[in-house]
Sequence to fold (265 residues):
Amino acid sequence: MNISLKLAAVLLAVSALAHAANYSGPLKVGTTAAFAPPLETAVAEAKKQGLEVQLVEFTDWTAPNVSVENGDIDVNLFQHKPFLENANKEGGFHLVPYAPAIINNIGLYSKKHTSLDQIPQGGTVAIANDPINGARGLLLLQKAGLITLKPGVGLKATVDDIASNPKDLKIIEVEAVQLSRSLDEVDLAQGYPHYLRLAKTIDPEKALLFDGLEHPEYVIQFVIRDGHQDDPRLAKFVDIYQHSPVVRAKLDSFYGKLYQPGWSQ
Fold:
């Protein structure tokens, strides 16, 4: 073997060792309260199988992506692809979806009215204030027949894209995690069942209208920094999350009927 080949072999070996070192230690998983309980069960199952996992819970939807980008954690679980695409664009991140988790229904909820017909002229409606989830709320309002949107706006709809608003509804934008707490102040609010369950403000199964589970773009994803797809710890943990009967039982008890797996079973 000549010197150049020997040097190449040494460099390859050093690279392999460094690569392996990057994937040593516990897998650090970031999430929010809405997804934490089933993940806690997956962490416990992983430990039984010899995989150490640390769960890091965040209270907002910005820090989990910053933490993955900076290498403070290995993966996060709280967002769907449209949200991730927007986050990458706005934050200059290099994040990619690794594997699907679950998809949740969202709905329109009210503590003041028992049907959409009762929403008054000039009533107040709360939707999410971030571009992607706000669009989901507007699409839901359109499905309810309360507004119509300009043709073709789809997942990028904003309040400026409202073409008609027959009841002259006042649409306010609220941080998504706070929507459940807005129900005392508004006539109608976009709501996420898991946050409603945590806030205990209203029965999450009592939406006046759900958006259905037919939109695969809203499947929540395990998200990593690009280039880390071959982390064996991650592959093992996702497999446990998706296929452990104990985790599935926790998903069922935590989300009830308002979710379904986003992966092929």
